[in-house]
Amino acid sequence: MVSKVTLGLVLSVLGLGVALSPTLLFMFTLGTPLGDALAMEVIPSVPMYLLLSMVGVPPSMMGAYLFRKGIRELIASQVLESVAASRSEPQVEEVNQYKEGPLTPLNVKVAQANTQPSNSQTSANTNAQSVQTSSARSVGKAQKFSVKTKSEWKVCPSCGQSTELGAESCGYCGHRFPKSSSESCPVCGAPLTYARRITGDLYACGICFSELVKAAA
To answer: Residue 213 in 3-state DSSP?
Structure first.
């Protein structure tokens, strides 16, 4: 299928050729019978070669219109692709950032899904996970948090894929997201045991990665 840009260029070139051909032909045949015929005035003050040149104007205008429309549609599609890419990339970067940090329940589960560690590594990860979980419980216990920045996605603690915030389970592996009636993230409802302290009173939920601020006692 010919694109609008290509079709517009072809029509513009053809129309321009039709518009210029009678004039050029008249200039090169001056003083000849053909030149005299082209110089005849079909309409008062409008010679034949000028009337023939007007035939190429409509195709040129149509070609210019199609070319402009095709360029605008191409730019719009590229903008939509860049917007879609920008919405997905931060989630992947954010997951990678937390994977590189200290071990949390999310990091341990993602590492277990992607690799097959040895027995010693499994034991070390389990111990680190229990330490982090107990630390997170002590942080989240009897604390209230307000939302600083709200995320629109959840990150599956089983496979590490992003899913819409309102989903009950992961759209990739089917893992059900954890929820808690008390001491839960005000954005996604995940238990605060998944929360991770960033600095001071600023925390990040381990499921939706929304930024939470601990309320003053």
So the answer is: strand
